[in-house]
Amino acid sequence: MPNATRANRLWIGRASRHVVLPLDGVIQSSVARPTARAPKQVNVSNQAAMQVKLIDVASAPLEKLYAAFRTCYSSDTPIEIWEKIEAEKISHARVREFIGERLKTGHASPLEQVVFWFAIAGVSRSLSHQFVRHRIGISFEQQSQRYVKFKQDKLAFVLPQSWERAGLKDEFEHLLDETSGLYARALKAGIPAEDARFILPNAAPTNFHVMVNFAEMLHICDLRLCVRAQWEIRRMVALMRAEIKRALPELAIFLQPKCGENRMGYCDESLEDWQKCPLGKVRPHKASLFEMYNKHGSRKAQALGESEYRAVEDLEQL
Q1: Under a CB-based contact definition with an 8 Å cutoff, are residues 30 and 258 in contact?
Q2: Which listed residue (102, 197, 224, 234) is catalytic?
Q3: Residue 27's beta-bridge partner residues?
């Protein structure tokens, strides 16, 4: 690609800061005791916190997105489109307006050409098992429990506040304290780290280096910003969104839970969950939409049968 022009320099989004957020759980250190005793207060001087930092954004992300969309809807070649961009024949305002119009149509494939890189630290293995379920448009590098031997005084754990509210914080910390001691003794006894890790719980923290495209980031926010997502991954994705918002506010407005006005605009979860959700006050439930259709539509909503499927299959055009 040609050297960056003034427009390129103006439109490139970069991240300059990272965010550390207090969790609905606290990552606490567990230090081994010489012998097993009654639960004691654990030394938590090694406290950690969830950290999320946007490392980089693919250069000229808005121009790339504009050119990708425009290639689909223009008789100009991609080279000609880029020449117009670099000659500043297309204003920044027009680029943003055009991208906004295209995003409303659901045309998603060009979004794969905008890529973000994140560094994430101090999240639990419970979270990581959920996070790696996202497979398309995202790449993970995760801290290994096989090759990393965790030092006894740095064996930290994520402690959800629900344990403290239930009055079981001391028991939780004592169990992790014992786990820390046993892990250290296993390594000292010559047990390989890849086998010693078998006793490490879901509460053990881990780190990620992540590359994700904008299309998948939208999907992640659809699911993980919803209040039905677990608190920890919801907090992490909220931080990822905040980082993108600082670098590319033009795109961050589309990073919402699936009920957001720039996504589906309504809740498709159960009616019971919708009634509990704080967003239920400003977002309709899918049942309400069907009720409106049944009340004001020309006919009642009904299940699709084989005749309807065949009609769609056989139709040449609308």
Answers
A1: no
A2: 224
A3: 48, 158
Q: Where are the beta strands (DSSP E) in 13-104?
A: 18-20, 25-29, 51-57
Every domain range in the chain assigned CATH 3.30.1360.170: 6-252
Read off the tokens for 61: 């992300």
- SS3 at position 6: helix
Encoded amino acid at 215, one letter:
A
C-alpha 159/C-alpha 176 separation (Å) is 10
Cα-only R_g, the chain:
25
H or E stretch covering 182: helix 169-188
65-83 pLDDT per residue, tens: 999 999 999 999 999 999 9
- Asked about 224 being catalytic, the answer comes back as yes
pLDDT at 317: 72
**How far is residue 200's CA from residue 121's CA, in Å, rounded to a whole number?**
17
pLDDT at res. 152: 61
Q: Report the candidate in 121, 131, 209, 187 with the shortest Cα–Cα distance to residue 158.
A: 121
Q: For 134-190, how does the pLDDT look when each residue is reduced to its tens digit (9 = 90+)?
A: 999 999 999 998 988 887 666 788 989 999 999 999 998 889 888 888 999 999 999
What's the pTM?
0.79
Which of these CATH numbers, 3.30.1360.170, 3.40.1080.10, 3.40.50.2000, 3.90.550.10, describes 6-252?
3.30.1360.170
Q: How many CB atoms lie within 10 A of CB 188?
A: 10
